[in-house]
């Protein structure tokens, strides 16, 4: 059982008011809030051992290096990667995807095929389109049904010997659908294709085991899971990371530099050019510690309760339609009420202290599928409560009355 009232004490931001009303934060799929335990780690870093890492001869540099590398081990352990050098620090999910897409530029050729899903965030579409433009490979799309579920039989029909890569999110940010990535990975491997899973929305709710999944690349952002912005990780199987060329050149990623020839550092440094987000990396580890101290099982159970409660209460509102009714979904509810524009609902809710997201959620193809400009999206985390959902429902009813 999760002690939500106790947990809420860890999040100072939950005590503030917005427009004179207590904040109700339901925009967690965009970014999560930060517990004091993680804020303390950030303050401690800048107060006590802020220094550039690796190769520093002085104590501060050593302390910062140790903490940063310790955090890499925590990330390795959390995702159950075989080696710590399979964990590459990135600036976030978008950076991780671009790193891999760039690497495949030298591995793909005309006639090769890559597969994306209809449920993707723009950051898991555009880099692959750019890759296809550069290489002449073609992009195929796994279609979805009205529930917002991928149609696996169509996926199987797309796979063939030319398929080199499949990229799919674990959970859709716009609809909350949990995709059957185990099956997707297995089928892709059967034709020799590699799979990249965008875990931006899954990592805040579940604990992926990259070895059990046998996934080739897995990416996520710390800011969706109680950590700071500007840091994330790319997991890649050692063999793949060795095959991919470096993404950016600069300091830290080299072995030897001369004007005639530069040789690159080994993993993970080959992909970590320049001074990284040192404090962010350390705080990412602290965020994982925090979430694991609550337990991902308890988090998932509680968030499922919030999802079920929120869904049933929302459906009592006349004219309200939920987009994304997959059997397997997480605590994201995307909806519209009649013909009311989502932006208008979001603006009135904000006046009542309630933060939701409105718009296309960086997933325009999904909005096109439903022939809508966007939705209102309420996304819950383990620090939200049923009482907050009640207040939100009352406020939403008021907003609908004002706008009808
Ligand atoms: N993929 C998905 C499914 C997302 O939800 C997001 C963030 N909204 C991203 C990718 C991009 O993450 P970031 O902006 O942290 O790079």
TrEMBL record:
The keyword Protease does not apply. It catalyses: (sulfur carrier)-H + L-cysteine = (sulfur carrier)-SH + L-alanine. Its cofactor is pyridoxal 5'-phosphate. Keywords: Pyridoxal phosphate, Transferase. The keyword Cell wall biogenesis/degradation does not apply. Residues 24-392 form the Aminotransferase class V domain. InterPro entries: Aminotrans_V_dom, Aminotrans_V_PyrdxlP_BS, Cys_dSase_SufS, Cysteine_dSase, PyrdxlP-dep_Trfase, PyrdxlP-dep_Trfase_major, PyrdxlP-dep_Trfase_small. Its EC number is 2.8.1.7. Transmembrane segments: none annotated. Belongs to the class-V pyridoxal-phosphate-dependent aminotransferase family. Csd subfamily. Catalyzes the removal of elemental sulfur and selenium atoms from L-cysteine, L-cystine, L-selenocysteine, and L-selenocystine to produce L-alanine. This is Cysteine desulfurase. It comes from Winogradskyella marina. The lineage of its organism: Bacteria, Pseudomonadati, Bacteroidota, Flavobacteriia, Flavobacteriales.
């Amino acid at each position: 059982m999760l002690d939500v009232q106790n947990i809420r004490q860890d999040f100072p931001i939950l005590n503030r008011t917005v427009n004179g009303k207590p904040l109700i934060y339901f925009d967690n799929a965009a970014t999560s809030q930060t517990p004091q335990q993680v804020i303390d780690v950030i303050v401690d870093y800048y107060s006590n051992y802020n220094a550039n890492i690796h190769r520093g001869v002085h104590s501060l540099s050593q302390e910062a290096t140790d903490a940063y590398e310790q955090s890499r081990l925590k990330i390795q352990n959390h995702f159950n990667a075989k080696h710590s050098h399979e964990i590459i620090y990135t600036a976030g999910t978008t950076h991780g995807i671009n790193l891999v897409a760039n690497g495949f530029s030298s591995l793909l050729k005309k006639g090769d095929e890559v597969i994306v899903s209809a449920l993707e965030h723009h950051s898991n579409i555009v880099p692959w389109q750019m890759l296809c433009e550069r290489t002449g490979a073609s992009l195929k799309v796994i279609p979805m049904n009205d529930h917002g579920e991928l149609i696996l039989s169509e996926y199987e029909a797309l796979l063939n010997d030319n398929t080199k890569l499949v990229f799919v999110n674990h959970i859709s940010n716009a609809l909350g659908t949990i995709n059957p990535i185990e099956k997707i990975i297995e089928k892709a491997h059967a034709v020799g294709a590699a799979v990249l899973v965008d875990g931006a929305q899954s990592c805040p709710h579940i604990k992926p085991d990259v070895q059990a999944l046998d996934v080739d690349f897995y990416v996520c952002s710390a800011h969706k899971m109680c950590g700071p912005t500007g840091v994330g990780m790319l997991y890649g199987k050692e063999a793949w990371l060795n095959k991919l060329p470096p993404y950016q050149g600069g300091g830290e990623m080299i072995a030897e530099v001369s004007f005639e020839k530069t040789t690159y550092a080994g993993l993970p440094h080959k992909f970590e050019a320049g001074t990284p987000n040192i404090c962010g990396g350390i705080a990412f580890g602290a965020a994982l510690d925090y979430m694991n101290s609550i337990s991902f099982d308890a988090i998932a159970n509680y968030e499922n309760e919030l999802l079920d409660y929120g869904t049933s209460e929302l459906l009592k509102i006349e004219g309200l339609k939920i987009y994304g009714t997959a059997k397997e979904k997480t605590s994201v509810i995307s909806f519209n009420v009649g013909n009311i524009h989502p932006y208008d609902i979001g603006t009135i809710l904000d006046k009542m202290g309630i933060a939701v997201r409105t718009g296309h959620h960086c997933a325009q193809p999904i909005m096109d599928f439903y022939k809508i400009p966007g939705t209102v999206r309420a996304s819950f985390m383990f620090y939200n409560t049923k009482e907050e959902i009640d207040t939100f429902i009352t406020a939403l009813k008021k907003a609908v009355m004002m706008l009808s």
